[in-house]
Design a protein that fits this description.
This protein is 34% helix and 26% strand. It contains 15 helices and 18 strands. It is globular and about 60 Å long. With 449 residues, the chain is of the alpha+beta class. The chain has an eight-stranded antiparallel sheet, with helices on both faces. A hairpin with a 5-residue loop joins strand 9 (207-215) and strand 10. The protein starts with a strand and ends with a helix. Helix 12 (396-409) runs antiparallel to helix 13. The structure holds the ligand Nc1ncc2cc(-c3cccc4ccccc34)c(N3CC[C@@H](N)C3)nc2n1 and calcium ion. The ligand Nc1ncc2cc(-c3cccc4ccccc34)c(N3CC[C@@H](N)C3)nc2n1 is lined by residues 131, 156, 164-165, 168, 200-203, 206, 208, 232, 235, 277, 286, 438.
């Protein structure tokens, strides 16, 4: 096992990784930008190095600055967290070329799965159902019309380098095809520096189901069940849960085994997530996330498996000590992302402030993942998520009741957050029944406009 790990991130995920290190007896190194000098992850670490000014490109995303900090600290490994450099194959390759271990998949595997058309072709090799469409980038509008001719409108044009909701254009009829194709290429070039686009049959109101994968460097691959991330606002996940209320045991087993086959085909190791769209009892591969995700927490809560500790053990060369049959899903867990945003329909980013009161909930089944304490100045240079409230109970009904209790206890004064939105969602009967689709929230909030 490593003796010292540098966590190349900030906020709650940096503290999350450092907690795993502490439990493994591993010393922790933080990096921070000028804006994060007094932030929680710096307080938590054994030592900390400044990597540059507030602008992420000049600090958290600066490959050389991060590697230099790891060298200065004498770190044996770098854990990237999520966001920033977590899915940057070029950076992973640079780390692989040093004597510092990258805590994540190989750069090759990141490249194989990072290109969505390649990933789709690879999944077909592994008999994993993919959303009907092309496994090569398309050049002409004729190719778009071919997919529509075979599978019917609407079709989705997606940017190869896209992710989240960015780079998804819905084409509802032939007239829109030409313009949407040009827009998708232009945005692909602008946002992702990659004009390649591909085409899929557009599923109108799927569920967004993802499977957590853990694989060691000796060929052992396990899935840790699924998460349901269907409650999204403009492609931003807001509430995630495990297990999914929309899957029955048979579908759960089939989707888990498909995820295992897919990552095995990709020679993948460490933690990863295979994302699927589920509609009318069918599941279709969408993409792979080659990193630990924000919502890994709900999987930990219902399996009792510490995914981050296993990332560190696997990177240190250890084998997984459990079989697939040992993975059991017990109870129900829901994660509420606590974003410093206005709780209105737009979720507009908050304008900063001081945490005059920070008194998070506690009690049975309540987990707080954050890096905050009362009196902290809110840093608004990076993403707006400041904490995660993860509530766990014996079943979904009890989890909903416990969530209402925990959110009512959550006392934050001095900044605005979307806690009122979460409390409202818990009164929504479609959500309480677990019948919300990925479209639900956008339709609900946009309808009132
Ligand atoms: N062929 C096909 N059909 C329906 C889809 C539905 C989604 C989707 C998934 C989850 C939430 C959404 C919200 C609005 C619009 C789309 C979604 C989707 N994506 C792509 C990126 C991911 N974050 C969301 N891809 C789709 N692809
Ligand atoms: Ca994704």
């Amino acid at each position: 096992m490593f003796s010292k790990v540098l966590v190349a991130n900030r906020g709650e995920i940096a503290v999350r990784v450092m907690r795993a290190c502490e439990e493994l007896g591993v010393r922790t190194v933080a990096i921070y930008s000028d804006a994060d000098k007094h932030s929680g992850h710096v307080r938590y670490a054994d030592e900390a190095y400044n990597v540059g000014p507030a602008r992420a490109a000049d600090s958290y995303l600066d490959h050389e600055a991060v590697i230099d900090a790891a060298r200065k600290a004498g770190a044996d490994a770098i854990h990237p967290g999520y966001g920033f450099l977590a899915e940057n194959a070029e950076f992973a390759r640079k780390v692989e070329q040093t004597d510092i271990k990258w805590v994540g998949p190989s750069a090759d595997a990141m490249e194989r799965l990072g290109e969505k058309t390649k990933a789709r072709a690879l999944m077909q090799e592994a008999d994993v159902p993919v959303v009907p469409g092309t496994t090569e980038p398309v050049e002409s509008v004729e190719e778009v019309k071919e997919v529509a001719a075979e599978f019917g409108y609407p079709v989705a044009i997606k940017a190869e380098g896209g992710g989240g909701g960015r780079g998804l254009k819905v084409v509802r009829n032939e007239e829109e095809a030409e313009e949407q194709l040009e827009t998708a290429k232009r945005e692909g070039e602008a946002y992702f520096d990659n004009a390649s686009v591909y085409v899929e049959k557009y599923l109108e109101a799927p569920r967004h189901i993802e499977v957590q994968i853990l694989a060691d460097e000796h060929g052992n691959v396990r899935h840790l069940g699924e998460r349901d991330c269907s409650l999204q606002r403009r492609h931003q996940k807001v509430i995630e849960e495990a297990p999914s209320p929309a899957l029955d045991e048979d579908l759960r087993e089939r989707i888990g085994e498909a995820a295992r086959r897919g990552v095995r085909e990709a020679d993948y190791y460490n933690a990863g997530t295979v994302e699927f769209l589920v509609e009318d009892g069918n599941f279709y591969f969408m993409e792979v996330n080659t990193r630990i995700q924000v919502e890994h927490t709900v999987t930990e809560q219902v399996t009792g498996i510490d995914v981050v500790k296993w990332q560190l053990r696997v990177a240190a060369g250890e084998e997984l000590t459990f079989e697939q049959d040992d993975v059991e899903i017990e109870g129900h867990s829901i994660e509420f992302r606590i974003n410093a945003e206005k709780a209105d329909k737009e979720f507009a980013p908050a304008t900063g402030g001081t945490l005059d009161t920070y008194d998070p909930p506690g009690g049975i089944g309540v987990r707080m993942d954050d890096a905050l304490r009362q009196g902290d100045e809110l840093v608004t240079d990076y993403d707006s998520m400041v904490a995660k409230l993860i509530v766990t109970a014996s079943d979904r009904e009890e989890c909903l009741a416990r969530s209402e209790r925990a959110l009512a206890e959550y006392d934050i004064e001095g900044i605005e957050t979307i806690i009122p939105f979460h409390r409202l969602m818990l009164t929504d009967e479609a959500f309480r029944a677990g019948e919300h689709t990925t479209k639900y929230l956008d339709e609900e909030l946009d309808r009132e406009r």
